[in-house]
Specification:
Helix 2 (about 50-55) packs across helix 3 (about 80-90). The protein is built from three helices and no strands. The protein is mostly helical and about 90 residues long.
């Protein structure tokens, strides 16, 4: 049985055209600059500040060894990471 009524196709078409709802990270500090796009990795950040922002916005793989230093190819000290975290409220 095939349904070819135009009234049936309108609701289905509207479901296909809906924009998906995405969740955003909500940091403690409302001034926290969440400008990093989803899907970025440590290889794509240019500074330790960007690496910390990436980590704080939910990219847990940035600190794979759980030593408190994300993206160790960019960030080399825990002190620098802690300073950046304090500035951005992470």
């Amino acid at each position: 049985m095939t349904i070819s009524s135009p009234l049936f196709s309108v609701p289905i078409l509207s479901l296909l055209l809906l924009t998906p709802i995405t969740a955003e990270a909500k940091p403690e500090n409302p001034n926290f600059p969440l400008r990093l796009a989803a899907g970025r990795t440590c290889k794509q950040v240019a500074s330790c500040a960007e690496a910390v922002e990436l980590w704080c916005s939910g990219y847990r793989r940035a600190d794979a060894d759980n030593d408190g230093i994300p993206c160790e190819n960019i960030c080399h000290s825990r002190e620098k990471v802690d300073r950046i975290r304090g500035m951005i409220g992470c």
